[in-house]
Design brief:
It is a single chain. It contains eight helices and two strands. It is mainly α and 221 residues long. The protein has two domains: 2-12 and 25-56, no CATH class; 66-198, no CATH class. Strand 1 (2-5) and strand 2 (12-15) form a beta hairpin. The chain is globular, with a radius of gyration of 21 Å.
Amino acid sequence: MVACRSSKANVRVRFPLTAPKPPKYRRRYAPLVWERAWVQLPEVAPLLLNFCLFCLMNIFVSDPNPVVSARNLDDVRLNKMILESAQLLSTAMTMRGSKHAPYKVTHVNHPVAIWTRTTKGNYHWLYQHFVALLSEFYRRRGKMHACHKHSTKLRWGIDLMPKGGLQPFSNSSYYKTMDNVPLAYRLTLLDKWKNDILEGRPPTWKMRGKPAWCPQSLDRT
């Protein structure tokens, strides 16, 4: 067995020393390519693993205002980001010494996780965003999200963070080279929504309507 570890997370992946049999449709045409690809897999796996980890956690900062950022999200990502925000806040609490965080530590070395626990200002912004997401979920669905029960406990985490105001947002969008982080996340969301339309599941904003900066090509649903 060959073991490789991701540099961005405490994850170990194991591969057999010998390659398994390629799929039937490849055994006749490309056995040598299959063998070479398997030999190189332990070298490529950490890069692929890091890429997947960075795609699994994010904060869609489409506006400097945490409430507006929550309202800009479509219905699917609104529901998803409530849990992710709670996990980021819980991770920040645990990393700062708390033993009462509602969720286990996850994605410790992710840029947005590091940003969250760096200062009180950063944590407070994400907590406000989390509360706004819960409020928006109730407005659109007419019921409370399951993470609502952890909102009080997560508020305690602000006192655990180092002193400091709000720092520049972490840019983990598709456009990482842009200095304007909210604009980078708006473009990222537009790309995701266009892809959703191509896949036959257009984005919806129940009881809200799409953001003002959303182009007319994305029909109001």
